[in-house]
Specification:
single chain, five-stranded parallel beta sheet, 20 helices, 36% helix
Length: 569
């Protein structure tokens, strides 16, 4: 029985996969992909898990496919980088049960460290790719992707972008279809990728791509819409909707099965329109292929390779304009009041430490006025960059910092490497008992699974000791001696780990006495403003104000004030 549900693109894709008989799902939290796995945790029929990182998630999902069930891997675009090793080889091995690989790209870098276009991975890895334009598309494509995967014995890439992932619309959903497990038959020639087997597999992949291209030509996911033939637009994903909104009377070739390209369809469409345009976000993926086919097409100026498109920008592209970058007017991101990361960076700033950081809420330690985090490269680099900083700049000057979830993701290996290579200095693990930045998902250090069930809890202390740290200590970030403890461990001729532990304030609702603010004692020196707390702000006349409603009573501001204008109750 059909019913209507108001779903985001992520939820719709997950729903479509569930209805298509999905039994295994693995992911690591990361915007804009997080809600795919979160949606799937509600279904008993699906083994849905947060893995420790994307490589592990990919291998778990691939293993489930090889064992005979329909499975799905999902992550944000940079997460696919972590999973690339098994991803590349999985195209060679092929699948058992259908296997969907979801990449959620992020044009506009709303919460990411780069703006890569993962359509290029489909071509690089030689795997078929589908691109939804809307939640309804995503719902439909999940089932089709499983069918393609099993028909052609290959993983299938579904590429979302932020606007498709997070846009919501009414989607007509149905009931689940149970799919029989495919029997696992030992087959080393298929699944053991030693060079001799892999060479034969590569030959098979090239032949398979020819068949996939023929399939793409007939796919209902590629749609030709002939209207006013004086203007023809080839578009994909959400770019199709922007172009459709801007030029509703134009003719369109909407590409949903976007790799391998449907060459005959592209040529046919180009032959029916007078002027051909290509509209796509980021890289000229479609544009370059169209031109390789010898087709003349107008495309965007190079300036539009950066950031998201919208209806206004599409009109500017058609008009042949260059993109004019407009200054961002958004409020500066800031740590929450009472955030356990704040006192750490306040202390590091006073100590003038050189700090290598990682991916998480604590990346905000780089922003003014804290300005005490000096590198953020990728997951785990807070540890590995620290190793080099420590050796080159001096272990009494350098500090690494990483969160609990990120440490489990890829920090453990860095700590093992640091210990093995005789590194000295201090690594701080800021343990707020959750994966906070992506929406407070659990991780192995919390002892809770993706489905909210209790499980074995990883001991950060024991894992650090086993990894080779000489000293492992734990402290409350709001302890009066935090700065002294950090300095003490920086100066030790040893590899130290300081676990700074306090629950994220979004989750922890403990009420504390708020400091007393005496305006008459305030000298307007601004020292309290340097901790960057939203509860303390400067008014137009330069006076400092204290917002008791926002304050959570962490009292970090009290330690910053030297004139007793702020004091503990």
């Amino acid at each position: 029985m059909k019913k209507i549900e108001f779903l985001s693109g992520n939820e719709a894709l997950a729903r479509g996969a569930y209805e298509a008989g999905l039994k295994s799902a693995a992911s690591y939290p990361g915007t804009p992909a997080t809600e795919i796995l979160e949606y799937l945790t509600q279904f008993d029929e699906v083994d849905a898990q947060w893995a420790v990182n994307e490589k592990v998630a990919y291998e778990v999902a691939l293993g489930a496919s090889i064992a005979g069930v329909r499975s799905i891997y999902s992550s944000k675009h940079v997460g696919v980088n972590v999973a690339m090793d098994p991803l590349m080889t999985s195209v060679y091995t092929g699948v058992g049960g259908g296997f969907i690989v979801v990449t959620a790209d992020e044009p506009g870098l709303h919460s990411s460290q780069n703006e890569q276009d993962n359509r290029l991975i489909a071509k690089f890895a030689k795997m078929p790719m589908l691109e939804p334009s809307s939640p309804a598309d995503a719902y439909k494509m999940a089932r089709i992707a499983f069918e393609i995967s099993e028909k052609f014995d290959t993983p299938v890439l579904i590429r979302l972008t932020t606007r498709v992932s997070h846009t919501k619309e009414n989607v007509e959903v149905g009931e689940r279809t149970e799919i029989e497990n495919k029997p696992f038959v030992p087959n080393p020639a298929k699944y053991v990728m030693v060079p001799a087997n892999a060479y034969k597999k590569h030959l098979a992949i090239e032949a398979k791509l020819i068949e996939l291209q023929k399939y793409a030509e007939e796919s209902p996911l590629n749609v030709m819409e002939l209207n006013d033939t004086s203007m023809g637009i080839i578009a994909n994903g959400v770019s199709y909707l922007y172009a459709k909104e801007s030029f509703p009377n134009a003719s369109f070739l909407k590409i949903g099965f976007s790799w391998p390209f449907p060459d005959k369809l592209i040529k046919e469409f180009a032959g029916k329109v007078k002027t051909l345009y290509v509209i796509e976000e980021l890289e000229p993926f479609i544009e370059e292929h169209v031109k390789q086919l010898g087709i003349e097409a107008k495309a965007k100026d190079l300036s539009y390779r950066i950031g998201e498109l919208n209806s206004v920008l599409v009109r500017e592209i058609i008009e042949g304009k260059k993109k004019v970058e407009k200054p961002a007017g958004a409020r500066k991101p800031v740590m929450c009041p009472g955030c356990s990361h704040r006192p750490i960076f306040s202390a590091l700033k006073k100590l003038k430490a050189v700090v290598s950081g990682d991916i998480g809420c604590y990346t905000l330690g780089a922003s003014q006025p804290l300005a005490s985090l000096h590198t953020t490269i990728c997951m785990g680099a807070g540890v590995t960059v620290f190793e080099s900083f420590s050796k080159i700049l001096g272990h009494n000057k350098a500090v690494g910092i990483i969160g609990d979830s990120t440490f489990v993701h890829s920090g453990i290996e860095g700590l093992v490497n640091a210990a093995y290579n005789k590194t000295k200095g201090l690594l701080i693990i800021s343990d707020n008992a959750t994966t906070a930045m992506t929406g407070s998902q659990p991780n192995p250090a919390t002892g809770i699974t993706a489905k909210g069930e209790p499980t074995k809890k990883l001991s950060l202390e024991k894992i650090c000791e086993a990894a080779g740290a000489d000293i492992v200590e734990t402290i409350n970030p709001f302890a009066d001696n935090l700065q002294e403890k950090i300095q003490e461990l920086m100066n030790k001729d040893a590899l130290s780990v300081l676990i700074v532990r306090y629950p994220c304030r979004v989750l922890d609702k403990t009420k504390f006495l708020k400091p007393e603010f005496n305006k008459e004692k305030c000298t307007k020196c601004g020292a309290c403003l340097q901790i960057d707390c939203p509860a303390i702000y400067k008014t137009g006349d330069g006076a400092v104000n204290f917002n008791e409603f926002l304050c959570t009573g962490c009292n970090v501001c009290v330690s910053a004030c030297k004139f007793n204008a702020l004091k503990k109750r």
